[in-house]
Amino acid sequence: MGLVARALRRLPTIRPTREQTLLTTERIAAVGQLLSSVEYLMEPRSELPGRANEWATLQATRFTFRSGVARRIVGAVADRRVVTGLHVLRVGAALLLLAPTGRRTRFAAGSTLAVTSALLYPHESYGSDGSDQATFVAQSAAALARAVPDRPALVDTALWYVAAQGTLSYAVSGWAKLLGPQWRNGEALPGVLRTYTYGDRQAYRLVRRYPRTARVLGAAVLALECLFPLAYLGRGRAAPLFVGSAAAFHVVNARLMGLHRFVPAFLALHPSVLYTAGPRRAVTASGPERRDDLFPLVLAAGGVAAAAGAYRAHRRRRALVTAGRPGEQRLTTSTGNELTFHRSGRTTPGAPLVVVEGGLAATIEQNVWLERGLGERFAVLSYQRAGYGSSRYRWPGEYHLDVALRDLTDLVADQAGDRPVVVLGHSLGGYLAWRAVPRLTDRLGDRVRGVALLDATHPDELLQSAAQYSGALFHDRHFDEVAVSLRLGLGVLTERPEFVDDLPADVRDLVHAQYADPGMWAAARREWRAVRTFFGHPDARLRPIDVPAVVLTAERTATLDPVQVRLHDEMAQAATWSHRHVVADTSHDSVVVTAEGAARAVDLVAAFVDAAVAARPGRATPDGEPVAAGEPTDSGPRLVTAPRPPIRTA
């Protein structure tokens, strides 16, 4: 640290005056806004009917307004002629800021750019990016500062706000990158440069030829962004190094990735960083100048209060997750894991037992519609896999899918009694149900009557389906980022997922709390890593099972990924006999989380359970006739649109 301090003392202090900071911020931001409007005027087509920014589509999909006044104001801008006029106005305002004009003119021009940015954003949300947000922050703060020229404390507050936004934008971006393994292992830079949108063929060839240099560059980017707050060390002596490095970074990005507007957008934040990082007092041409530093103190106090509030919210969520639903029971399995399970449905002796196995990153409460629908006809057993909800993960060794299979087998063997059993699995739960069949038949014999698969995971899908492989790449990064973020206490920032409101009202708060719980995401990351490792192993291949199956594919899955339909056909053919359906008007998630989708699935699963229980155990169809191994009793996937009985809602 002494060496760093001595090095900092050798650096000169660069501290612009208040007026210099304000003037430079306005002009650089104006360049970015000028470029943005000129780009639109040269090709104003994105809001035409059928295009990404068509206002009718945006209103239905992205923007809703509680205020009728706001809706009418923003809606009035939807006219293409109005949008064009606003962009012409923005060009004029930007040119005024670039010229040597007076304070009132600059205030009017800056305010015009800030207000029109806010009006146009809803209409240009597809295609806007961080550069638009950065220029809006800089220009709106500068306009507010121009409104109070005789209140230097308020001007300094505006400049501190811009500096804080700039510093946080780099730091948050850097730490978010650090959560992803691609940036840590040096794969991110080549990965970006090879893309069609942001890539550069020549640069990609260079980083492939010199991988060590590419890793050093990637590490340098991470260091710059993660450590950007250190610009405030040494009374701002380090600030020019960080600001200059960031400026060079944006210029290189403009050349390689085509992000030209990012240069003026983020450079507009830099003068405020230099101003606020430098000495508090300075001598200007008009006399001594003293900076007001109340804003960072208020910001720090607010941060402490927010952290305390986040901790209290975390404790409340954790208490809700730990309590679970009324009637939950616990079982410690042979792995040492403590599972939470829920019994529901019919209690008639001998009634079939349907065991519900959930998907990846999904607690049993997300399957409540299935539970309640099936519970009207059968006994139902659902449970949280180890680490989900109030279940506890105790396995001492390295996790692998065999741990989950042992847990499932122990639970079913303990709870089945003399009932016939059908295991129902959604997504990854479908594959686990399939793999558990041999273990269950070893423990329960012919009481295991079948498996029901809802949009199930197939062990070959990452090799054969481009859509599934693309999703896997997203999961690789997503689970790491979310698990670490929640462990750092950022669950309070988690938005309420839309699917929560599709569930029964009595479980919504619990599911929302579970969604923001770090334990569930840690369990999901653990399972996903095991899946990624195991699916590349020969033992993961699909093996025939000695029980029948019903295989359901969500219609949206079938439409978007025909490969998945073929893989589901393969699963149907690997059972002794099978029912095969495509469930209409459902997606991978809605087939379980919505009342309508789950009702369709329940009807099909119930028909299969009745047939499987009525059939003679072994290789026989529902009518008792023997069939060859792997021969489906249905002729192929069928789109199911038949009327269904009403389902009770909470």
Describe what you observe in this structure:
- This protein has 650 residues and is of the alpha/beta class.
- It folds into 2 domains: 15-292, no CATH class; 327-491 and 513-615, Rossmann fold, CATH 3.40.50.1820.
- The protein contains 27 helices and 11 strands.
- The strands form 2 sheets. It has a 9-stranded mixed β-sheet with strand order 3-4-6-5-7-8-9-10-11, sandwiched between helices.
- Strand 3 (329-332) and strand 4 form a beta hairpin.
- Helix 2 (18-42) runs antiparallel to helix 5.
- It is elongated.
- Mean pLDDT is 85; it is low at 48-53, 624-636 and 639-650.
How do you describe this structure in short?
With 650 residues, the protein is an alpha/beta fold. It has two domains: 278 residues, no CATH class; 268 residues, Alpha/Beta hydrolase fold, catalytic domain (Rossmann fold, 3-Layer(aba) Sandwich).
Topology at a glance:
Layout: H1 2-10, H2 18-42, H3 55-61, H4 68-76, H5 80-98, H6 103-120, H7 130-147, H8 152-179, H9 181-184, H10 188-193, H11 201-209, H12 211-226, H13 239-257, H14 262-267, H15 270-277, E1 281-284, E2 287-290, H16 294-323, E3 329-332, E4 338-345, E5 353-357, H17 368-375, E6 379-384, H18 401-415, E7 421-426, H19 428-444, E8 448-454, H20 461-464, H21 466-487, H22 508-515, H23 518-534, E9 549-554, H24 555-560, H25 562-573, E10 578-583, H26 590-593, H27 595-614, E11 638-640
Parallel strand pairs: 5-6, 5-7, 7-8, 8-9, 9-10, 10-11
Antiparallel strand pairs: 1-2, 3-4, 4-6
Helix pairs in contact: 2-5, 2-7, 2-15, 5-6, 6-7, 7-8, 8-12, 8-15, 11-12, 16-22, 17-27, 18-19, 21-23
